[in-house]
Amino acid sequence: MKNYIKYMFVASAAFLASCEADFETPITDEGVYTSGTADLSNFVSVGNSLTAGYADGALYITGQENSYPNILAGQFALAGGGDFTQPLVDDNLGGLTLSGNVIAENRFVLSANADGPFPARLEGTPTTDVANALASPFNNMGIPGAKSFHLVSPGYGDVGGVLTGTANPYYARIATSSSSTVVGDAASLSPSFFSLWIGNNDILSYATSGGSGVDQTGNLDPTTYGPNDITDPTVFASVYSQEVDALVASSGQGVLLNIADVTSIPYFTTVPVFSIPLDEATATALNAQFAQYNDLILPTLVTFGIISAEEAASRTISFSAGLGNAPIITDTDLTDVSTILQGPPANLPEELANLLGQLRQAKADDLIVLPAASVLGTQVGDDPLQVNGVSVPLANSLVLTSTEQARVATAAASYNATIQAIAAANDLAFVDARSALAQVANGGVSYDAGLLTDAFVSGGAFSLDGVHPTPRGYAYTANLIIQAINAKYGATIPQVNVGSYPTVTLTNN
Amino acid sequence: MKKLLLFAVFAMTAAVTYAGGYRVSLQGHKSLAMGHTGVAVVNSSELVFFNPAGLVYLENKLNISGGVSGVFSDVKYQNVQFGTSAETDSPVGTPFYLYGSYKANDWLAFGLGVYTPYGSTVEYEQDWVGSHLVNNIELAAIFIQPTVSIKIADQFSIGGGPIYVTGSVNFNRNLNRTLADLDGNRSDVTIDASGVNAWGYTIGAMFNPTENLRIGFNYRSEIILDAEDGTAEFNDVPNSPLAPFADTAISASLPLPAEMTVGLSYEFCDKWLFAFDYNRAFWDVYNSLDIDFADPNIPDSQNRRNYKNASIVRFGLQYEATSKFTLRAGYYFDESPVQDGFFAPETPRNDSNGYTAGLTFNVSDRLQIDASFLYLHFKEVDASYDFYFENGVAVPFEGTYKSNSFVPGLGVTYKM
Mean per-residue pLDDT for A149-164? Predict the structure, then answer.
């Protein structure tokens, strides 16, 4: 009987040991998910703000945690992926300081008052100081603001150049030396697999500034470019090729992403062109005000051969009673007639001549940028006769005209051809982010609880800056990359459920 | 080898208990060791729970039994499509029982029982992938039952008594799949209600057609725990009028379903006893778990459950090995009340098989030590909960579950 008791104890111990429930095939088992022929053990991701996890107009911790490279790394971990390091900033405010001075603003949050929700900058003093150098490469080498040529530009991480604009504060935080390059630091990690998504800013800053910069096509020296210029496609092809060469050196495996259309992002699609409501009396008064411009000045300019008949037609201003009036704008692609109008026979006063100098009314194919929402219809200097968009033209920086869009599209098409050709030449996976984003913008992409669209605030894909994705948008991006890797390398990495990722953050200051 | 050893152990020993939903069948070690049979077994004051009618047939004037079990349970979840997984880290549950019966005369006995037939403690990792359904839940109910047992004839008796229940529930889950505060801490709510009291009753009958055969019947009424003054505490809610979640009072009700049992026991070859019970639990009363928030800004929470009535079939065997030792073994099949599409991770119960075993050691004529253990095995199951809604769209929570429980227990019986 003593033996029986002994057996009972042994049996109990056996039960306790086997108490843990086990799946027939736990997903953590080797072989459930595979990386195919890819080696994901040391994944390095290179790019700009999109790669960094930038959102809501700032870089903050929870945004970085939901960066597409970090989401990817989480899924890669199921298929042989290793640790993934990110240069996390110091807070969830998102602003930057340099030696105590704020050099980048805090993030936007969705605030609300009695009138409803609205994006607002989060208050608070940022704690991330660029001068606190981490001096180390990270698996996530996404540098907000970087253009293609910046990634191979020595000195881009020199903290001394941040205030003068020759260096980037985000790269200065982590650069291994004042003369190191982003791609050089990334390559120093000897990635077993890399991703590169660069080139967006080579057109985006031109676009978001309403075409305030210069299309530098033909200028092969990027050191002469201004911040809002379009990068020459030959320069792009050259630096992009260098970058891929540096990153494939260690393993030959990676994924390249192309550049999305600017017309796919809410920054350009939220504020409608035909948005100004006018009553009959106001419309009539405005038309009377512009009658001289329409009926006398423009025909005269045509007569003198200063502008073409087409330009005169495009510059004609017309308002009508109703909700759908287009704003008047300054279009820098029009012939500047402000000096001529000050001379005979018009002899207009300088102020009026400047107002009419490059004046026209916005058209259906122009894009009004998101910041114009807080300008349109407001009065200048509390003067009820000085209304933005009605009697005062919207500044060039607030409108991306069809001419400017064409420049952006031409450059983007050239960059994308380069990216796809280099992906093919190096036998790398390729993600057509342009088409995927166009799908979000045109009808949306379905997920388990609805549709992911480009609608500002409510669409779920874009954060409150109207340019960068939300975590849910980044999760969608991560899935695109997983699909491309699975197809190219015969991998079986699971996608993430985008519905589990958040969108905009609610907070009142 | 491990499997072989386990098989050998089961073959030697046998029997288990536990039950669908949040029912915990651990109401006596003698019975549990025999597959939690007992509606027709006259063995000890465990009859207070299993069938009050049988108390009057106990030989001794005074019978007291008490015991406690340790519930070690483990639930694993995974979703192959997305590569997500989770495992519960639930604390050890300790359901207990205490029964006493006193035989006033040949035809009348009184009894009193305190026991915990309902309870559930499930703890997932906070913010796991199903956290919008549950992070953790702790449900407990103590039943107190005075009992009378009357012999109508030598072959027939009846018994019963009122049941007083005092219960508590503590439940935490995230408000939805994505809401978080500024620092990314997920917004959650803890529902707490304690000291929730209610009344019910139990009745039983026993029929002894021959010296060796007993037939039993028992019915325990439905008891609805109505929590009128519970609290809801919201945590990590963003500072925004768009998320108007302030701590408030709640009311909710949780049904403890009625349960009917019929069964028999048969003595053979002197030292052997076979028992069979059939339980029917009327779970269809558990249609929806609705939480009514007192604050009008907070929408009430409706969580469809749609349980169905479920049966349990139990077998037990007892062998009086020596004057000192009685050995027991048993088996039961426990049908889950959870229907397809309603599988919520807070009570992840599919059909299960229970294997039980145990023994009684007679320390003296008066004192016995009762030991039992139960291994409850759930088959791996692909299941989903299809009634979670986001902006009016049903968002099923799908995955594969695998769980089991191991429940050792120890108790004493005193007779005089």
Answer: 96
Q: Look up residue A136 and give its two tokens.
A: 């180390």
Which amino acid is located at A401 in the chain?
Answer: T
B-contacting residues of A 362-391, CB under 8 Å?
none
The answer, for A28 touching chain B at a CB cutoff of 8 Å, is yes
Contact B74 A449 (CB under 8 A): no
Q: What is the pLDDT along chain B (416 residues), one digit of tens a residue?
A: 333 333 333 333 222 223 456 777 899 999 999 999 999 999 999 999 999 999 999 999 999 999 999 999 889 999 999 999 999 988 888 899 999 999 999 999 999 999 999 888 889 999 999 999 999 998 889 999 999 999 999 999 999 999 999 999 999 999 999 999 999 999 999 999 999 999 999 999 999 999 999 999 999 999 999 998 899 999 999 999 999 999 999 999 889 999 999 999 999 998 999 999 999 999 999 998 889 999 998 988 888 999 999 999 999 999 999 999 999 999 999 999 999 999 999 888 889 999 999 999 999 999 999 999 999 999 999 999 999 999 889 999 999 999 989 999 999 999 99
A304 class by beta-carbon count within 10 Å (0-12 exposed, 13-18 middle, 19+ buried): exposed
The CA distances from residue A39 to A43, A76, A80, A86, A326, in Å, are 8, 10, 8, 20, 54
- pTM over 0.95? The answer is no
Are B391 and A449 inside 8 Å of each other by CB?
A: yes
CA distance A62 to chain B (A): 6
Does the beta-carbon distance from A14 to B9 stay under 8 Å? yes
Q: What are the residues facing B405 on neighbouring strands? A: B73, B376
Q: Which residues from B are below 8 Å from A28, CB to CB? A: 85
Nearest to A105 by CA among A97, A113, A116: A97
Contact between residue A230 and residue A171 where contact means Cβ atoms under 8 Å apart: no
Locate the chain B residue with the closest alpha carbon to A479.
B82
The arithmetic mean of pLDDT across residues A466-486, rounded, is: 98
Two tokens, residue A285: 């008064």
3-state secondary structure at position A248: helix
Q: Does B33 touch chain A (CB under 8 A)?
A: no
**A7: which chain B residues are within 8 Å (Cβ-Cβ)?**
12
Nearest CA distance, B325 vs chain A (angstrom): 9
CA separation, residue A181 to residues A152, A158, A204 (Å): 5, 10, 22
Instruction: Output the CA torsion B302→B304→B308→B314 (10° steps).
Output: -80
Cα–Cα dist B72/B92, whole Å:
5
The H-assigned helical ranges of A335-380 are 338-342, 350-356
Binding-face residues of A in 429-488 toward B, CB within 8 A: 448-450, 472
Tell me the C-alpha distance between A418 and A252, whole Å.
18
Q: How far is A476 from chain B (nearest CA, A)?
A: 13
Cβ A304 vs Cβ A337: under 8 Å:
no
Residue A377: helix, strand or coil by DSSP?
Answer: coil
Report yes or no: A8 at the B interface, CB cutoff 8 Å.
yes
Residue A280, judged by CB atoms within 10 A of its CB (0-12, 13-18, 19+), counts as exposed
User: What is the pLDDT averaged over residues A88-95?
Assistant: 97
CA distance B337 to chain A (A): 21
Answer whether B402 sits within 8 Å of A22, measured CB to CB: yes
